[in-house]
Amino acid sequence: MLNYKFLAEHDPEVMAVVKKEMKRQIEEMEMIASENYVSKAVLEAMGTVLTNKYSEGYPGHRYYGGNQVIDEVENIAIERAKKLFSAEHVNVQPLSGSPANAAVYFAFLKPGEKVMGLRLDHGGHLSHGHPVNFSGMLYNFVQYEVDSETGKIDMEKVREIALREKPKMIVAGYSAYSREIEWQKFKDIADEVGAFTFADIAHTAGLIAAGEMNNPVPFFDVVTTTTHKTLRGPRGAMIMCKERFAKQVNRAVFPGMQGGPHDHINAAKAVAFGEALKPEFKIYAKQVVANCKVLSEEFIKRGYRVISGGTDNHLIVVDMTSKGLLGKEAEVILDRIGISVSRSTIPNDPNPPMNPSGVRFGTPAITTRGMKENEIRKIAEWINDAIEQKEEIELLDKIRIEVKEMCERFPVPSI
Ligand SMILES: *Cc1c(COP(=O)(O)O)cnc(C)c1O
Predict the structure, then answer these.
(1) Is residue 210 domain-shared with residue 73, that is, in the same domain?
(2) According to the model, what pLDDT value does residue 3 have?
């Protein structure tokens, strides 16, 4: 196990908690679609002295002295990101996905202007116009949906809404959508109504960087991504855009939304982008998708309803009412056997968001541990046994031990 020697001596109370979390990560299986394990190098970069620096501004234009080295780090991150996504301009300073999205709206829109985004309960994100989020409060969002039959986005319907509503911006890219996105069609519709195109690839960025999914960066106006999901970097985000929007995007991030960038995190982003440029990362991303397809097939085989009938990426949303329970109950049962998942709404969910019908499963983290198709089949069997025989305490205990044993055979590379 990683030993944080100085932390342990200096603050045993905090170290004790960190240790407990390390143990949990080592012994349990992480199937939350937005999570992953960073490499040791990324962890180390986050712990560097770069955290001590203030560097408001951008490389070559800082509001503080002593930033020559910080400029170099930020430029490495920018150059690698450009290469990964074929981007014209990159801003690596956004602190996380939601602030990055806030900066995009701020850069392109005036408060009250109309934006089109996918409904949260159909797979969208809070920051795509939900009423409890700043996005829904400050901008006039009209929401599109997935088709209730296919579970997929119906581009004809998107076009109809766009022609009727004439939004200033159309948002595509989601949190709980398992299918390829027709970026070109979004772009055509946006051009037809004179809207900006904004892609939020927070979930799929790693798969896109590896060429496993289509890349919106070359033809969308602006694209945001988190860096900590499939991209397997530190917690954070970035914005990519066409050169002609570079100034307004930069200004929106700083001084518009944020103060000083987190330079230690930006160093870790540079490291993660470097890793994503390597051939091994392509193999990883391919396996993430292959694993998820197997997981989906295994569920379908056992009578579960998988939304959209399958997956093209790293996640699936499963309707648990097809097995007579709700998402939260399934989440608790799976916690009991050492598998972490997140409950999720399903399209047109008859149940409330706090107690929705579905569970979202993802394969990025377990694939980082090296698990492949055979392990996935076993995991699906455990999940199904636990769900179908949830009253059998002895069985649940036995599965918990088997899960732990598999985790021991596939250690988290960085811990
Ligand atoms: C995760 C996610 C975000 C938000 O990222 P945070 O870093 O949690 O703020 C934004 N958009 C989408 C589509 C996401 O899935």
Answers:
(1) yes
(2) 86
Region of 142 please: left (phi>0), alpha (psi -120 to 50) or beta: beta
The one-letter amino acid code at 240 reads M
Whole-number Å distance, alpha carbon 265 to ligand 1 midpoint, is: 17
**Ligand 1 proximity of 97 Cβ (cutoff 6 Å):** yes
Q: How far apart are CA 248 and CA 124, in angstroms?
A: 25
Alpha-carbon span 245 to 359, nearest angstrom = 38
Say how many Å lie between the CA of residue 303 and the centre of ligand 1. Answer: 31
Of the three residues 276, 301, 317, the one that is the final residue of a domain is 276
Burial profile 207-246: b = 16 or more Cβ within 10 angstroms, e = fewer = bbbbebbebbbeebbbbbbbbbbbbbbbbbbbbbbbeebe
Residue 413 clears pLDDT 90, i.e. is over it = yes
The residue whose CA is least distant from atom 3 of ligand 1 is 97
Query: Which residues participate in catalysis according to the annotation?
Result: 54, 56, 200, 226, 229, 235
Average the pLDDT over 347-370 and give the result: 96
* Band (316; pLDDT cuts 50, 70, 90): very high
Task: Determine whether the shortest distance from the Cβ of 331 to ligand 1 is under 6 A.
Answer: no
Residue 295 lies in domain = 280-409
Q: What is the pLDDT of residue 353?
A: 86
Pocket flag, ligand 1, residue 128 (CB < 6 Å): no
How confident is the model over 48-78, as pLDDT tens digits?
Answer: 999 999 999 999 999 999 999 999 999 999 9
Q: Is 314 in the pocket of ligand 1 (CB under 6 A)?
A: no
> In the predicted model, is pLDDT for residue 175 greater than 90?
yes
Q: Is 217 a domain residue?
A: yes
User: What is the domain count for the chain?
Assistant: 2
- Parallel, antiparallel or unpaired: strands 57-58 and 29-30: unpaired
Q: What is the pTM of this model?
A: 0.97
Tell me the pLDDT tens digit for each residue of 96-125.
999 999 999 999 999 999 999 999 999 999
Residue to mutate (ligand 1; options 226, 265, 313; most atoms within 8 A of CB): 226
- 61: domain CATH number? 3.40.640.10
Ligand 1 pocket residue status of 200, Cβ below 6 Å: yes
Comparing CA positions, the residue from 280, 341, 288, 328 lying closest to residue 311 is 288
With a 6 A CB cut-off, is 127 part of the ligand 1 pocket? yes
Q: Name the residue at shortest CA distance from atom 10 of ligand 1.
A: 97
What pLDDT sits at residue 1? 82
Residue ending a domain, choose from 276, 301, 335: 276
